Amino acid sequence: MASDSYIFQGFNQLVLHKFMVKVSLVTTVFNRDKYISAAIESVLSQQHRDFEYIIWDDGSTDNSLEIANFYAQQDSRIKVISANHEGRGIALSKACQHLTGKYFGLVDSDDLLSVDCLAETVNFLNLNTHVDLVYTNYVVVDADSQFKGYGTNSDVVYSPEKLLTEFMVFHFRLMKTSIFEKVGGFDPTFNYCQDYDLCLKISEVGEIQHLKKPLYYYRQHSGSISFDKRLEQLLFSKRAIEDALKRRNMDAAFELEFQIFARCTLYRKSVDRGQ
What we know:
The protein is an alpha/beta fold.
């Protein structure tokens, strides 16, 4: 006769199996051989084990592809796809054509996941079935993975309206693959701010909620987009907002005041601007 502890252990395994959900994670990489190993290892260390990890190499000229292939040979959950360099927008769009999981998340090639990132976010979506996307808090680290502080984007309280001027739906995000596909996925014509454009679209048709736990490590370094391409990044964020205003039929009532290196502000045309 089986002992109580054995029966209890078997029950736990059945419950775990019942709630184990396949997750699709995607990383696009272009010349990030200094950081890609750490990103991959943070994915492989996840407590939630049922995932596929799609790494799309966007024509790297350093050792990024070789590093990704090395890990793929060690773990069958990793799928590496090598392509010509076409830019992040196209790379993201093409990589996400290979999703097979119920949930989808994005990991930047120079960032890291906490070991419980997937376990926490998958559990949240499993328990809150009306939610389409959950986002977490994040930690800022430097080039050497040293702590710099806690990210402040997620301090802003989310609403679909507030998202028009504040990008609080930052890393990490886990969403239903079905909602991702419903809104058309990533727009390949966006060179930057693809995730902001995506979140705006999801906020218009789905439920977004905040899990207030720091589960993602966002790396700031001299080669990151935030330092090198700030102007172009801001211009694409402006486009994402303008597109959202049109979809929401708000473009006739509001105009966007856009200042470089400052936040965007929406004004109601007839009231605030005297028009």
